[in-house]
Amino acid sequence: MQTASGQDTPTPVSIELLLFVDERPSSQEIMRQIKNYIQSVKTEPSITLRAIEIGEQPHLVEHFKLIAAPALVKIFPEPRQTLAGSNLVQQLKKWYPRWQQEFAEQQTSETDLNFKLSSRLDNISYAAELIGLSDEVFRLKKEKEELLEQLQFKDRVLAMLAHDLRSPLTAASIAVETLELIEKQEKNERTIQLVEQLHKQARKQFQIVNRMITEILQASKSTNAELRVHLNQFYLQSLCEDILPQFAKQIQSKSQTLETDIPQDLPSVYADTELIRQVIVNLIENACKYTPESGKISISILHRTAQKIQVSICDTGPGIPEEKQELIFEEHFRLKRDEAKEGYGLGLSMCQKIVRAHYGQIWVDSVLERGSCFHFTLPVYR
Asked: Which backbone phi and psi does 92 adopt, to 5 degrees?
């Protein structure tokens, strides 16, 4: 620093303290008491205090390895020292005489002392900035990994789609060509039965293609994409009555039994009808797919609390290993046994996303070789 005459004057030197505080009233009160004490100190050297809000500069908290707040850190003179606890003022009064002694011992010359202080503060600022940059680099690396994973998954899905669509489209094409040939022939009981079978076969294959395309469209969305939820009041029992008939032939073809326990006096829910339809359809499709022939599928709805309704869809399939029961809701996750089956591991993750968008929960109870029960909750309309 220069005077009016242009001559250098020594920069005042003091004991340097950093006070880390949070927004709690007790923390703010301790800061006030410490400031009052510092203002009352008349001896040399003086104390310079910098208050730091933990939430605003978390990288400094990491740099000083603080585990509690409020905390008082002496950064000059060396060595660095940290005080913590609710009695910081008493600790400061206790340590100040010792810090004065350390200060006197290290004061070889005022110029050298100023240089040490400047270097110390510069190093702290540099370290804090370095930590902040490291955090940013880490975040960017994570984002890059997630983006690469999404791109790789979409590449795999496109490859699977090209392969998987070939079979149902070929089967449907053969069925259509055969129908065209039969149309030119004389109609009799045998050809009429054959036409009905071919119609069923073609419809089944086109349904498979439609499911695949639906899952691919879901996969094309970012994992962080926002769902557009259009809330309205409706009754789950009516929605289930609308959904269940579409599974009648599928259940009959495997001689499965469908049991329902859906009370007619259930309260209405407040949700997006089409999104909840998607959840129920997906869970019933899975139950039909994994339940063996002559197995049982059950659907029940329970008015669980005044605020929640619980839907449960159970099967008597192979079950899910306990250690995998949370993983199955992750995007792209598939059990090894299912890798040969159609699908891309997207259905349950989308179900979870939809249910969470309605502030509900979804989970599974499962026992190997005995089956699985998928449950989800929705808010009651008020």
From this structure: -65, -45
d(CA 333, CA 244): 27
Task: Kindly report, residue by residue over 7-32, the tens digit of the pLDDT.
Answer: 444 444 678 888 888 888 888 888 89
**Separation CA 176–CA 167 (nearest Å):** 14
For 76, the enclosing helix (H) or strand (E) is strand 71-76
Dist. CA 76–CA 116, nearest whole Å: 9
- The torsion region of residue 6 among left (phi > 0), alpha (psi -120 to 50) and beta comes to left
For 192-219, the pLDDT digits (tens) are 777 777 777 777 777 667 666 665 565 5
Of 239, 355, 258, the C-alpha closest to 315 is: 258
User: How close are the terminal C-alpha atoms of the chain, in Å?
Assistant: 70
**What pLDDT digit, counting tens, does each position of 296-329 carry?**
999 999 997 778 999 999 999 998 888 888 888 8
In order of their start, the domains of the chain are: 15-107 (3.40.30.10), 142-219 (1.10.287), 232-379 (3.30.565.10)
Q: Report the DSSP pairing between strands 362-367 and 371-379.
A: antiparallel
